[in-house]
Design a protein that fits this description.
InterPro entries: CheY-like_superfamily, NreC/VraR/RcsB-like_REC, Sig_transdc_resp-reg_C-effctor, Sig_transdc_resp-reg_receiver, Tscrpt_reg_LuxR_C, WalR-like. By secondary structure, this protein is α/β, with parallel strands linked by helices. The protein is built from eleven helices and six strands. Strands 2-1-3-4-5-6 form a six-stranded parallel beta sheet, sandwiched between helices. The longest helix is centred in the C-terminal third of the chain and has 15 residues. It is elongated, with a radius of gyration of 18 Å.
């Protein structure tokens, strides 16, 4: 079997270098991208077997990359490789056309196996994430309402929402996101207003019900 041709898309140079070092001997890395524009250019220019795609990218995110590429090359296969294990991220990229979704704690051997399986037409998910997809199709998660509500929030507000729902104090959120406590308070107030919630307890319940935590 010839070596799979792979494009690696991630906005962190060090992470792309790490992936290249980890799997470069087993697959043929033919291109890289760090944002939507460079990713689309690399993919269209090389037509790889599989694209390793980060979900959160400058310029519109992983879903925008898939949308632009599939307009020209509908057969290119995408495998999401992300630090996020949030339900809306998983469902969002699968709906956009990804063939699988694995988290960045995956081993090099597992990642090579996932690439080969996606290239062969299989769907590949980290075990916990497969449950989100099944729940979405069974109706246990109301994906339409999740998308609609989350669309009202900025990316930063979503990050604050998730940390608050996980029980972080405002100071811990500020430290985690490198922003001031005052800014955290502003974001929380905005999230509560947009989602029509009264306090952080309701916010936590809202996020937990939608598998965002």
């Amino acid at each position: 079997m010839s070596s799979r041709r792979v494009v690696v898309v991630d906005d962190h140079d060090m992470f792309r270098a790490g992936v290249r070092s980890e799997i470069g001997a087993s697959v043929d890395i033919v291109g890289e991208g760090s944002d939507v524009d460079t990713a689309v250019k690399a993919i269209v220019g090389t037509e790889p077997d599989v694209v390793l795609l980060d979900v959160h990218l400058p310029g519109g995110g992983g879903t925008e990359v898939m949308k632009q590429v599939h307009q020209r090359h509908p057969d290119v296969k995408f495998l999401a490789l992300s630090v996020s294990d949030a339900a809306e991220d998983v469902i969002g990229v699968i709906r956009a056309g990804a063939r699988g979704y694995v988290t960045k704690n995956i081993s090099g051997t597992e990642l090579i196996d996932a690439i080969n399986r996606v290239a062969d037409g299989d769907a590949v998910f980290s075990p916990r994430l497969a449950g989100f997809v099944l729940d979405a199709f069974s109706g246990a998660i109301d994906i339409a309402s999740v998308d609609e509500d989350l669309d009202r929030l900025s990316q930063r507000e979503r990050e604050v929402l998730r940390l608050i729902a996980r029980g972080y104090a405002y100071k811990e959120v500020a430290r985690e996101l490198f922003i001031s406590v005052k800014t955290v308070e502003t974001h929380v107030s905005s999230v509560l207003r947009k989602l029509q919630l009264s306090n952080r307890h309701e916010l936590t319940r809202w996020a937990t019900d939608r598998r965002l935590v």
